[in-house]
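INPUT
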Amino acid sequence: MKKIFMNNSFKIFLLKVAAFFVVVFLLDFMIGNLLKKFYFRQESGYDFLTTHSLENAKADIVIFGSSRAVNLFNPNIFEKEMKMTCYNAGRIGEPIFYHYAVLKSVLKRYKPKMILLSFDAGNFSIKQEAYDKLAVLLPYYKTHPELRSIVELKGSHEKVKLMSNMYPYNSLLLSMISGNSAYSKNKYSSPNGFFPIKKTFAGPLPTFDYSIEKALDSIKINTYRSFIKDCINSNIQLFIVCPPYMINSIGTDASIIQGKKVAQEYNISFLDYSRDTFFTKRIALFADFRHLNEKGVELFSNKVIENINVIKGLVH
Amino acid sequence: MIFNSFHFIYFFIIITSLYFALPHRQRWLLLLLSSCYFYMAFVPIYILILGFTIVVDYFAGIYIENAHGKRRKLFLIYSLVANIGILCIFKYYNFINTNFSYLLHGFGVSNPIPYLSILLPIGLSFHTFQAMSYTIEVYRGNQKAERHFGIYALYVMFFPQLVTGPIERPQNLLHQFREKHHFDNNRVFEGLKLMIWGLFKKLVIADRLGIYVNGAYNYVDQQDGMTLLLATIFFSFQVYCDFSGYSDIAIGTAKVLGFDLMTNFRRPIFAKSTGEFWKRWHISLSTWFKDYLYFPMGGNKGSVPRWYFNLMVVFLISGLWHGANWTYIIWGGINGFYLVFAIMTKKYREKFNTLTGIKKLPRLHQFFQILITFLLITFSRIFFRSQTVEDAFTVIKKILTFKGSIFNDGTAILLYSFFAISFLLVVEFKKEFYKGSFTLSHHTNFWVRNSYYSLLVIIIILFGVFDGGQFIYFQF
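OUTPUT
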């Protein structure tokens, strides 16, 4: 054994491997730092909005959720009707992990007066994709210690991967170029995080059933629970809102049932519009099956505000 | 345990260090135990199936060698029945039962035979075929029966090629377990380079393309023709990079340890005919079918119709080997048909080439040959990728109408995909047509070579898809 590891050939091997790792390390360090600079210099795009939500936004009302938050909750209407500043901190396609991470960063900086969490059917369904999507938080891992435990849910080796300076920016190069360009500034920027969908659904009513998934992810449920608990502990008024769908599902979605149950445990209002007949089947109010269009958003936002005011006892 | 996981990196480093640290006489045991661990990292209980085939074929080999006359054949048949039997139970039982149900349903009778609720053991078709090649070669007298049970078990279970090949032959692999492998600097680097290139193909190209392909093929009803056309072309590159990437890592891993596994791919993208394609694609399986099925059936020695028949049978069985689904059988049938059609039309095609004068422009001719071969192979892969035959026909119908626009869920996915394919084409083109020149991977200067591979690693970190998961061929 000693013979093998002490011979010249093995020593040369070790030297060459070391040289290889030195080159990789240097490139990783230089490119990683350059990318970091460009990432945080973005002035538009979804990554910029995440940075803004984590580090700068300081509104009285903060909205959390995936695309149905981003496209359906218009902060202008909330500001006007509720006389408070409002910011939409949602991000398209992101699951509860992301929302909880943003909440933790927000709470580290200040306490909003009210939080609205948009809830979707299938929110607790078991999907690896939900964990993969935590990749959007990788650039903040080193600078935001409060997010680390959530980012580490992405995989058991995330800590090792994050030893690389470049890894947090994996697959982000093009979006970073876009986020630093004037083109993106015109197209992907919003002062309050809201992106309305301007088209109207064209076509027959879809017929599929979105309530089919029964198995639920306990980690997602626990994260949702933590979201609620952190709001309660910080004395923030929390409203969980499930926006409408274009069609009624055959049964009630298992995630919605569970979401309501947990909200009830903590005495939190869960406003469920998923089967609200005011919206369902009115395709003129929808952009697609899951998303209301601008016209629908106006009606929906007002309806939510009205209900919140009733709950708060401002309107009888 | 998959090659593109940290689990494998740790495993590989530990096993390689131990391997060279141990004296030669103990190395087979280390490799065997590590292969068991490697396999059991998937579904532990399935090691029993592997154990069963190993025991059966180990004794079958000895009995075949010791027997004379008809008894030799009898022992071979026992061994083949045991191997194919296991394949039938675990891979084809439910498929056969489903089709039997359809048949009975046609007569208004319900099928009383129950379905089995079992998972397909990882890489079953691969190691079963490798085990079968052993008993066949012993029967043919080309290979002596292995008396050392551990060495024989290692032949079937050698972890680099256990789950997705290359499907080895005993003459190539068995003797290598007895040879003493010294730590060879150049060899280790060659192996590591292959592993990096394999990882690059898997993470940067295959899994990147897979994002678009899966998005399109999982919801074929909701996609337009242009999207499905692009997804089908992407799939052609994806399946190549996924599978050849795995083979590269397997061959590289074995090389580091001192073993030479057979070449499995020789740039099939540049095949000039479908016949040539099969000499470049999954070579270990193509040659397996050639040696153990096509030639024993008579190959091209009999009448022309018999030749066509042999080709069709081989490709239909090859389709079935890939999966218990009609989509694979049709895929095999299409590829068999291509070969038969190519033989039938050879004279006419030559006449056409002379008439059009394209033969005078060899480069253009070659370009069209490569393009047509690629398109034909890509077309057949619609069946390979589709979940059902119905889906495959939907895809074809939609592609042929050329309707709609390309689905673009973020320009980045498409741009990264085009970048990945371009990179692959440049590297493969250079290897195919300019072998030895402009070489970076084997440049004489250490720092140039070093920088090239460092750059590949950097690209993997920056553009690789780390959540892509398993290799496509694991399911076979």
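end of record. The two ends of chain B are 16 Å apart (CA to CA).
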